[in-house]
Write a structure and sequence with these properties.
The chain starts with a strand and ends with a helix. The protein is built from 14 helices and 21 strands. It folds into three domains: 2-131, Rossmann fold (3-Layer(aba) Sandwich), CATH 3.40.50; 134-378, Alpha-Beta Horseshoe (pyruvate-formate lyase- activating enzyme); 380-446, Nucleic acid-binding proteins (OB fold (Dihydrolipoamide Acetyltransferase, E2P), Beta Barrel). The protein is an alpha/beta fold and 449 residues long. The protein is 37% helix and 23% strand. It is globular and about 60 Å long. Helix 8 (217-225) runs parallel beside helix 9 (245-253) and helix 12 packs parallel to helix 13 (354-379). The chain has helices at residues 12-25, 51-70, 80-93, 109-118, 130-136, 165-168, 177-189, 217-225, 245-253, 270-275, 282-295, 314-327, 354-379, 439-446, and strands spanning 2-8, 30-32, 41-46, 75-79, 99-101, 123-125, 147-151, 153-154, 173-174, 194-198, 207-208, 214-215, 232-236, 260-262, 300-307, 331-336, 383-391, 397-401, 407-411, 420-429, 432-437. Bound molecules: 5'-deoxyadenosine and iron/sulfur cluster. 5'-deoxyadenosine is lined by residues 49-50, 162-163, 264, 266, 304, 306, 335, 337-338, 340.
Length: 449
Amino acid sequence: MKKLFIKSYGCQMNAYDSARMADLLAPLGYAPTGEAKGADMVILNTCHIREKATEKVYSELGRLKALKREKPDMLVTVAGCTAQAEGAEIVARAPVVDLVVGPQSYHRLPEMIARAARQAGHVLETDFPALEKFDALPEAVSDTGVSAFLTVQEGCDKFCTFCVVPYTRGPEHSRAPDRIIAEAGQLSARGAREIVLLGQNVNAYRGVGEDGKTWNLARLIEAIARIKSVSRIRYTTSHPRDMDDELIAAHGAIEKLMPMLHLPVQSGSDTVLAAMNRQHTADDYLCLIGKLRAARPDIAFSSDFIVGFPGESDADFDATMALVREVKFAQCFSFKYSPRPGTPAAAAKKLVAEPVKTARLLALQALLLEQQDDANRAAIGKTMPVLFEKPGREKGQLVGRTPYLQPLHVQGSRALIGRVAKVKITGLTANSLHGALLAKDLETASMPA
Ligand code: 5AD
Ligand code: SF4
């Protein structure tokens, strides 16, 4: 057996791609290992979204240089969005790299490994044969876990002016619904109980079915909800513009669809939203939140924010804070604007000074954290269905998640892993809830695992 070490950076789609690369290399005799030292093949599945993410790749390559000196036949592969964006620069800066493969070409890895064995120097593949990739990938064999990712859509045609994704992941492409439903079935047969549908613009999903008809995301979710052993469905990441009425209605109608939605808004200022080419106003966003709350009153929201976008004034930033106060988010991700080569915003002249960016990020994060804490505290005293994922660190402990993705600990039998059981929530420590199983599930808990 050859040892394969994959390090995944960035988003959930990279995590999905990493699992698929492991599946692809398994028939070649590669088995996963937990460390780069001594590995026959190391894959860095990289992220290019912000400058910091890209810098991490180069520092990791520095470390790999030493390991390759100890084991000269180690194959070093750079995959993912940095590979796509700056493949040629990577091999020039880091001769330790043997293979460079973009996110749409990794199905060609076996053939690239064979080429690397025949020829000196590196092998580089950064085409966009998106239609080919999913057809060429083998059926998933790697461990799924209780919650599994499933890519349904890839790429982005929105071209927000700050974002590299349309360039690194390419144009929007939706997989065929029958293939996705089959994959969801395979994942659930291997133990997945929660399916997280992934796409850079997942709610822009438009797959062509065997019936020749175009399916939207609502119809796809409905079909996956019919798989008996799937108990929870989520989808991410959505764009406000693509939140159609059918999808909003699905939140009220499909019980397996979890009442938590990641809906990035980026800013609360119409001026900044226009400069970002988000194609909606702050009011459009608030109106959408209202419609979703009407369809599913207990729905919670998370979002992404960028502070310090070029030209962002104090008043613009105040508008972001006002939007946050109005929505009350359960969880959020916020970033300082990072200029990315090749994106329109990178050419902007009216930059926000670094200390101003820092001050705004701190103020926003303090408010978001307060809201997250409020959402967690509001759960205390409630009874919620929890999907148990794995044993906890303490003896007899289980870790699961509420419908709102909050981690939760209870004492219970391992027989509950992969099952949903009701928990009376009694407290909060750091960011984790704890509670007790209801009596009915305690009986299950005393059954042998
Ligand atoms: N600078 C800072 N944050 C960015 N994001 C995307 N591009 C940039 C950038 N250039 C953030 C957005 C997006 C999330 C995945 O990353 O908030 O929603
Ligand atoms: Fe990037 Fe905008 Fe596309 Fe999201 S919608 S991936 S932020 S370009």
